[in-house]
Amino acid sequence: MLCPACGKGGLFRRYLKIVDRCPVCGEELHHHRADDAPPYFTMLLVAHIVVPAMIIVEDFWHPAMWVHFSLWLPLVIALSLMLLPLVKGGIVGLQWALCLHGFEFAAQCRPADPGRA
Fold first, then answer.
1. 11 C-beta neighbours (distance < 10 Å), count
2. Which of 30, 86, 105, 109 is 20 to 30 Å apart from 79, CA to CA?
3. Digit-coded pLDDT (tens) for 58-87
């Protein structure tokens, strides 16, 4: 959840709102295009954690449905809320590292000597 360019400045100004530019190095971050990828990957991760756990609990203890709801619903919500900013930061960092979706003109994507490009 740090700036992909310098690794020092914070990436978020609010829960999921990316800063316009890094407060430390000045890298512009406002043009990222994470769109629907962070929620999709978050759901994928949470499902791969919760579903096997649900199956194991059901096989060993056979709890009532109200126990399942009271156990898994808060866990799914908590995991989703914890993982979503981490996944979004990872996607923005990956886009920055690969010069994708608005980062084509980032400082690290420009050649050092424009005459040689």
1. 19
2. 30
3. 999 999 999 999 999 999 999 999 999 999
Residue 26 burial (CB count, 10 A)? 12
Q: Give me the amino acid identity at 43.
A: M
- Pair 107, 26: CB distance under 8 Å: no
Give the pLDDT confidence of 34-51 residue by residue, as tens digits: 889 999 999 999 999 999
Average pLDDT over residues 84-94: 95
The answer for residues whose C-beta is within 8 angstroms of residue 99's C-beta and 6 or more apart is 106, 108, 109
Considering the entire predicted model, what is its pTM?
Answer: 0.87
Phi, psi for 28 (deg, rounded to 5)? -75, 125
- Helix, strand, coil percentages, rounded to 5, for the chain: 55, 5, 40
- Kindly give the interhelix angle for 65-97 and 37-61, rounded to the nearest 10 degrees: 150
Quick one: pLDDT at residue 114? Answer: 55
Give me the half-sphere count of Cα atoms (radius 13 Å) on the Cβ side of residue 16.
Answer: 15
